[in-house]
Design brief:
Strands 2-3-4-5-6-7-8-9-11-12-13-14 form a 12-stranded antiparallel barrel. It has 3 helices and 14 strands. β4 and β5 form a beta hairpin. By secondary structure, the protein is of the alpha+beta class. The protein is globular, with a radius of gyration of 27 Å. The protein starts with a helix and ends with a strand.
């Protein structure tokens, strides 16, 4: 009987110790997780893609100067350019290219793999105002669709650091980046007389953007810091974009809840010092599909380009292109 009593006392003591230990563990977990849950809920309550968020009228906001430091933000405060030839994104496009110097045409496939990764941001609590530092990289490749083996013509590699800023309808982007260009092996084998250029440079570019309802205008330029060969350094860039209201996607909207489509149109212009400030013109327009609250966007766009070839090894060619392609932003 005495042994049974002692075992019962030990059992109760052990049980009480386990209960105390369990209670302490729960309290520790609450202390650790509670700030994280609050931060997560704070982000989800106001989460929107600040690249495409509607401009907020700050006159209706109370004096609230609360800012949050955000690690690895999944959006940005500057909207990527719609019609620029070399924005870091994923896309595949068919192009009918006419070489204006020689009067010949070629069917070309353009493939780009690229994107921007947010490193750190400082965001206002009630709107999309703030700063962001990011890393971007992209590969721009062109393929000869008329060749039996779909020869690689040229690839441009870019990597750099953008610093972006937004205040209401005004946003800016400043980038320092490197580009190197490499001609395809198959192209060299078929064109042994081609004089390959070891093209590479570091550049600083800056753009300022202003949004008003469905319209956006931007302007700025680039300066080549180090370049090979010795190209003239200056580029002036400007453009305009239009984004319609979004509508529930027909057919797909019934299969994918929350899917919307948006008609979009953009024009980008670049005047390059090396070519006597002649203007390169790029126009893209079509439809964009997106889901409310997501940063991913899919576009089907028609394109037109006239000017000097924007791709590396063939920068001195005068071309005109018509194309269609799909474009993905993540």
């Amino acid at each position: 009987m005495r042994r049974l009593t002692l075992n019962l006392i030990k059992y109760k003591t052990r049980r009480r110790s386990l209960q105390v230990l369990g209670t302490r563990c729960v309290c520790i977990l609450i202390v650790i997780l509670l700030p994280r849950v609050g931060w997560s809920e704070g982000l989800s309550a106001q989460h929107s893609d600040c690249r495409y968020a509607a401009t907020i009228d700050e006159s209706g906001i109370a004096n609230n100067d609360v800012w949050h430091s955000v690690g690895f933000p999944d959006d940005d405060v500057f909207r990527p350019l719609l019609a620029a030839s070399k924005e870091p994104r994923f896309f595949g496009s068919y192009q009918r290219v006419r070489y204006r110097d020689v009067g010949e045409s070629l069917n070309v496939g353009l493939i780009t793999a690229g994107g921007t990764f947010g490193l750190w941001g400082l965001r206002h609590e009630t709107n999309c105002d703030g700063f962001q530092l990011s890393l971007f990289g992209a590969i721009f490749s062109q393929f000869n669709l008329d060749a039996d083996s779909t020869d690689l013509i040229n690839s441009d590699f870019q990597v750099g650091f953008p610093l972006t800023w937004r205040r209401g309808p005004v946003s800016t982007r400043v980038r320092v980046y490197h580009q190197s260009s490499h001609v395809g092996d198959e192209f060299l084998l078929r064109n042994s007389e081609f004089n390959r250029v070891n093209l590479g440079f570091e550049a600083l570019d800056a753009l300022a953007s202003f949004e008003h309802h469905s319209w956006r205008m931007y302007g700025g330029g680039s300066y080549l810091i180090r370049r090979k060969p010795a190209l003239d350094r200056g580029v002036v860039q400007w453009g305009i974009e239009f984004r319609s209201d979004s509508y529930t996607a027909p057919m797909l909207g019934n299969l994918m809840e929350g899917l919307y489509y948006t008609p979009v149109l953009g024009a980008d212009f670049q005047a390059i010092e090396h070519f006597g400030w002649n203007v390169n013109s790029s126009v893209m327009g079509g439809f964009e599909w997106s889901r409310l609250g997501s940063t991913r966007r899919f576009r089907l766009l028609l394109s037109y380009y006239r000017g000097h070839n924007p791709f590396g090894q063939f920068f001195d060619q005068k071309i005109e292109t018509f194309g269609i392609g799909f474009y993905i932003e993540i």
